[in-house]
Design a protein that fits this description.
Elements: E1 10-16, H1 32-47, H2 52-59, E2 62-72, E3 81-91, E4 95-104, E5 110-121, H3 132-142
Antiparallel strand pairs: 1-3, 2-5, 3-4, 4-5
Length: 144
């Protein structure tokens, strides 16, 4: 998951597949992967000392998803423990890119890879630059 830069921050979150997250075929329903990406993203921000809530309430800084992709590699099943690896892949003035890997904890099987692209907006949903304190921290987390 490395992006070639020195010392990128990779956050690992763990979750367990709930029965309600599986479909009639007994595998995790595909849309749940995007929920797990969000879990990883929120935890990565916390690891960097920030939270979505504070960004929105104190800085009027909102991060809207504008593109989301997932490549499914292997199925996950009820009660599997999943590791969500999340990494900031890039930061520009008003655009943030995250990368994800979903791995089965028991055997290390890569279940899915994904990316999300976000734009920074104000409360009126107008695109705006990411505040400097976040830009600095996010660029450091990318490893540059």
């Amino acid at each position: 998951m490395s992006n070639g830069n020195s010392h990128p921050v990779i956050c690992e979150s763990r979750l367990r597949v709930r029965y309600a997250e599986t479909d009639q075929m007994g595998v995790v329903y595909h849309a749940n992967h995007f929920i797990w990406f969000e879990v990883g993203r929120v935890e990565l921000l916390r690891q960097l000392g920030f939270s979505y809530r504070d960004m929105e309430e104190h800085d009027q800084c909102f991060i809207a998803v504008v593109d989301a992709r997932c490549r499914y590699k292997a199925p996950a099943h009820y009660d599997d423990e999943i590791i969500v690896r999340t990494q900031l892949k890039g930061v520009r003035e008003s655009v943030i890119h995250f990368g994800y890997e979903l791995v089965r904890a028991g055997d290390g099987t890569l279940l899915a890879e994904g990316e999300t692209t976000h734009i920074v907006t104000d409360a009126a949903m107008k695109m705006t630059p990411l505040p400097e304190k976040y830009t600095k921290a996010f660029r450091a987390a990318v490893g540059r």
